[in-house]
Amino acid sequence: MGVPPDEVWGRVALRFGPRTLTYGELAGAAGALAARIGEAGRVAVWATPELETAVAVTGALLAGVAAVPLNPKSGEKELAHILSDSAPSLVLAAPGADLPPVFGELPRIDVDARAAGPVPAQRAADGDPALIVYTSGTTGPPKGAVLPRRALATTLDALADAWQWTGDDVLVQGLPLFHVHGLVLGVLGPLRRGGSVRHLGRFSPEGVVRELNDGATMMFGVPTMYHRIAEALPDDPELAKALARARLLVSGSAALPVHDHERIAAATGRRVIERYGMTETLMNTSVRADGEARAGTVGVPLPGVLLRLVEEDGTEITAYDGESVGEIQVRGPNLFTEYLNRPDATAAAFTADGWFRTGDMAVREPDGYVRIVGRKATDLIKSGGYKIGAGEIENALLEHAGVREAAVTGEPDADLGERIVAWIVPADPQAPPAAEELADHVARRLAPHKRPRVVRYLEALPRNDMGKIMKRALADV
Description:
Domain AMP-dependent synthetase/ligase: 10-340
Protein name: Acyl-CoA synthetase
Distance between the termini: 47 Å
Structural class: alpha/beta
InterPro entries: AMP-bd_C, AMP-bd_C_sf, AMP-binding_CS, AMP-dep_synth/lig_dom, ANL_N_sf
Largest sheet: 9 strands, mixed
CATH class of the domain at 6-124: Alpha Beta
Family: Belongs to the ATP-dependent AMP-binding enzyme family.
Low-confidence stretches: none
Pfam families: AMP-binding, AMP-binding_C
CATH architecture of the domain at 6-124: 3-Layer(aba) Sandwich
Strand order of the largest sheet: 2-1-10-9-11-12-13-14-15
Mean pLDDT: 91
Number of strands: 26
């Protein structure tokens, strides 16, 4: 971030509830913080959904040091691992924030959002680390993905191209600021364009209505948020009118069920667009603002991103037939450089010719649109000689009136190799749809070999902070 041009100096850059900072005020606060940080090797950021978190990350970028966003809801064991692994020289936090004992004697700087100081001269290179974001750690301790400054810049500029994103846009979001979605796309994105972000603090449909009615043009959310919107729309005409005013509604971090897509489109006349990315790659694909917002797809590769699908033996799939399932591999300037202190994991994440193995399975439609069918580790089911993606079965199940939530996994089967298991949260717990009815429902919509062989009923599906279903936890249910 450099000195804002004169025409945006007085424009509101950040709004968190009633608190705002103009570009001039943000530059002053971040500049003052950068001077206090000095040449610290790495800084932790206690990433609460507050103005101070945005100032802290901006200040670290100005200082040319890597920021490590921390989830305030993390347990002490996870925090201890991240602090030990990243070895920050200090922690940045909002004044009055109560840090847990695991921080010990680590020096702390309270972020003053009203401070004023000069913007320092740029002294960091494009390849220098900007952020170290820790993965969810579903298969072991969280790994720190080192994101260089060029990855942030190229991703945000590619999204500006895809979404026709300009300084006139005002973004409303209520996402956590310790993940790529809320922090990079949802805060640094508007700042790079010279626009504005209004953070809700805590997401609510009422907050979305308020901001869209007050000039917001874009909304970012995760499927859980859009599901709540879809559920509220039939009884809330003001919500439908507000969403209809938005220029762009974007969903990410997990697949948005087709049923919710269609309910929102029917009520508002606006279609939610989806994009696809990961902590390690930032953004890879998106439906374009000037393209078709096709439910169930994540669009086409972004400018600068190379994408291919490969078989298990590494053979590239060249068919764009909407059926051939392969693992997504990507190359481009949007990628991370390494897992911190994990050369073994870094090496394993890339092919010999430099492609990143995402672990996500997809097909490509004849026009190049990418459709994610699930994770290689948890969502690719090999049953009766077929490779089946869990995602399309979940979407089919969600089209049944008796299903509120659905997840699909595979489990060993002596005859089929794996059998398809559906985990269902019924719309009416007192009268759940019968297993046979659900199996027939899927078979009619997809194909007989994709029908669930086992149906298990739950009160709720286990989810993480971003609303993603934690399928590994289903084995313990």
